[in-house]
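Encode chain A's predicted structure.
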Amino acid sequence: MTDVFTNRDIHQLHSKWGWLVALGLLLTAFGVAALANLFIATVASIYYIGAMMLVAGAIHLVHAFQVRGWADSLLWGASALLYTVAGFLAFTNPGLTAAVFTLIMAIALTVAGLFRLWVGFKMRPMKGAGWIMFAGAITALAGLTIAAGWPVNSLWILGLFLAIDLLMQGWALFSLGLAAKNA
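Encoded structure for chain A:
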């Protein structure tokens, strides 16, 4: 296997190690803050998703006027309308939006976990198949656990995922910055 990073890349990382450490610490602090109030972190996640849906709705609407043919314009316009309505719903009723997203996440995790279990089972007796099945079982169990607590856990589960992501990204960048300092 060849090295992915060149000496120039390593030098650039080394010269920016302080920024990586600082960004890592900032993301970790945000993760701790999100962990301290999962409800606010959930609402922030919903507002972020809502904002992205509004932007997507605007882009789809612009695109609807640029495609040729009435049927295509109508479909893109309908897509713009759906994105926009969903974006407004996220801002006007974040609790309902959180419940819907939490249910979708529970279903997606359960299906993904069951699929991984099936893939791991088909891989047997190959070495490592047990780990694939184990990971699938954990993912499916996470999905089923979220589904079992739904809709009450909708108030905090998205915030928990956001907090964990911020903590993991913060730790990863912090670690990368320290490694780049010593490179």
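Residues 117 and 133 are 4 Å apart (CA to CA).
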